[in-house]
Amino acid sequence: MSTFWIILTACLASSACALVGSFLVLRKQAMLGDAISHAVLPGIAIAFLLTASRNTFPMLIGAGAFGLLTVYLTEKLQLRGRLMNDASMGIVFTTLFAIGVIIITMFASQVDLDQECILYGEIAYVPWDLWIFNGMNMGPRPVWILGFVLMLNLLFIVSCYKELKIYAFDRQLAVSMGIPIMLIHYGLMGSVSFSTIAAFESVGAILVVALIVVPPATAYLLTRRLSHLLMLAVFFGILSSISGYYLAYWTNSSIAGAIAVMTGVYFGLALFFSPVDGILAKKYRRKQNTGKGPYEGPGLELRTKQTINI
Predict the structure, then answer these.
(1) How far is the CA of 196 from the CAs of 13, 21, 125, 178, 240, in angstroms?
(2) I need a labelling partner for 90 at 20 to 30 A (CA). Which of 32, 49, 98, 132 fits?
(3) Measured between alpha carbons, how far is 159 from 149 in angstroms, rounded to an integer?
């Protein structure tokens, strides 16, 4: 039974992260997920200090607030500080992450708020982290939390699908059409923050980046339709979760680490074998265009025409 709960938790985490990560990949902001996953640490620490408990709801609020703060400060530095996006992002998330480490070290060093758990997670303990409601065993608490966040992400994407689609591909067009671009933008960033903190206890802040970026990037190599991309991203996230668990079982290693490795394996396969953007497909098309012999094919003809034009 513990295997079922672990795999279910991993599938819920990967699905929630893949949905919001798809839009980050399309917006060329994939590493913003990495920045948010680190920058929310002070929000977690402050929520713990204010409530004196590890209740997930206050931590979700604290993490969400600092996730949005990360996006806001990154954009302000980029606009007013004349910095590139990656530079401003690096400044903001490293500073906030360091502040979180200092807060934990100064005020929470004697309590059970483990930095390593936040960074690496431990999904193997999920079956024993139970939610007891009115004396009834409702099952593992992370399953309910991740399921709730996944439903929020689905609700946000379904209700704002047209706006998100235009925003993802052409922000200026979205502005000209009167779409509330800031509401969509910060709604997406809030979803990324909630997905990140919900997956903390399972896969940790570092490995959650793999779930946000790699399955959508894999799907991007296989399709150009947004609806298909979202479905494929979730599919690869779930597939990585299941195969990663059994890889960890066979190698007696970290489950979260094995899941992240499998996301990379499927991306590598898509990179080579994608019928459109795959390395092998491109080589085949290049060979077809160049011809087989030194005097065959359109390659020589094209070079001849260019020489004549010159």
Answers:
(1) 9, 11, 18, 30, 18
(2) 49
(3) 15
Q: Copy the structure tokens of residue 151.
A: 């439903």
Indicate the residue type of 284. Answer: Y
Residue 250 Rama label (left phi>0; alpha psi -120 to 50; beta): alpha
Sign of the dihedral through C-alpha 21, 22, 23, 24: positive
Hey, is 40 helix, strand or coil?
A: coil
Q: What does the alpha-carbon distance between residue 253 and residue 262 come to, in Å, rounded to a whole number?
A: 13
Please write the tens of the pLDDT for every residue from 80-89.
767 777 788 8
pTM for this predicted structure: 0.80
Strand runs labelled E in 134-275: 136-140
Neighbours of 7 (CB within 10 A): 19
What is residue 114's predicted lDDT score, i.e. its pLDDT?
Answer: 53
What count of other Cβ atoms lies within 10 Å of the Cβ of residue 91?
A: 16
Domain boundaries, the chain: 2-206
* Residues composing the chain: 310
Cα dist. 123→1, 58, 71, 146, 260 in Å? Answer: 14, 21, 28, 13, 13
In the chain, what is the straight-line distance between the N-terminal and C-terminal CA atoms, in Å? 73
